Amino acid sequence: KQWYQRRVAITAGGERTPKDLVRYVLNMLGDHAKVIGNQADLDKFTVSDGEYMFVGAFESDSSLKTEFLKIAEQQREFNRFAIVTNPELLKKVGETNAVVAYQPEFLRNKWEPHYKVFKGESFDLMNFVKLAKIDLVGIINKQSVPIFEVARPLLITTFDVDFEVNRKHTNYVRNRLLKLASEYKDKVSFCMGDLNMTHWYAPDDRYNDTGVLMTVISKEGWEYTVPKDLPFNYENAKKVVEDIISGKIEAKPFQSEEPPVQKKRVQRVVAKTFHDIVLSEDKHTLIEFFSPYCGHCKALIPIYNELA
To answer: Are residues 298 and 290 in contact, defined by beta-carbon separation less than 8 angstroms?
Structure first.
């Protein structure tokens, strides 16, 4: 679970399957950004069965190149990075002073390009690296939840996703989602995840579901689980999407407590008032998430009140 680099132990990121741990170790070996000098190596690099691949195409030194190498060192456990400076190879890549993100081969499809190009300012590069995984139908896991949930409203489809053991069913679901996403991409975002994500999103009575679970994240961030009597197929999924757009699906807060009467400078926020108070555009908000049973939280109360 740990890899020693420069005498510093860092915890392995991602899942803990044997395949993921092997991939993690291989990513941590050698240079954080592989220098590619010929077409054969470029072709080999841009075809991967796991991670997204980022190729920095640079004619000369630049702030974007410096930032790319910095990000490659920080993110090498999650993605693969390479750099191209050979003039002939740059012509093959088709870009200069740019970063190109390539989809893993098993995710490539006819509905979208298998690569994305970044030619912006260096300070925006990390954002590009993070958001590159939001494809027409991206693959969500626990590490990428914050990235995907930004793209709301969002339809999350979870089941026994496996592009090797359960390939036929996985592609059956994904191809129907891709068709939907190509039609509604400007109105709703789509992603899919494995049974770990079913456990993440499912209500208590469906925690052990192994079938296809559809979860909607509304524009406001509330969750809605599509009823079990609406099984997954293209027509039903399309109906869910159209109901999201029309507003028929109204996701609700997990708890529907009544907002308290506010008498203090520290306001107590509940689900119904979270958006209006915490996300208000009128002022900045400092919010403490606490438990009434937490000793540290109780000790903070007088200090927090004094600060307010």
So the answer is: no
